[in-house]
Predict the structure.
Amino acid sequence: MRQATMYHCVAGEEDLLAEFLESTVTPSPSPSPSPSRRLLAAGGTAAEDRLWELCRSDAAPLCGGPCNLGAPYVPPEVRAERFADFHRVRRPRQMRCCGSWA
């Protein structure tokens, strides 16, 4: 996609970043069950093995690609009011997954 085409669809870099960040915390519609639901239903497998597989499936996209997928969450500009929707959705998930830390 050419840059001119991209900016025809979004107002600027900040909107593009906001759209990307929001897409990372919004579940994608999927006809198949999520890995966690599939592993929960796998009754014949030991709980420890299912938990290990869930952790592996969550970490694989972060570790397996050429890019650090956590990097877009870090820049100071992501703290701006423009990104409030992203933080509103991410905060409860972050606390639920990682414990209560600020």
User: Anything to note?
Assistant: The chain has a mean pLDDT of 75. Residues 3 and 9 are 10 Å apart (CA to CA). The chain is about 60% helix and 0% strand.
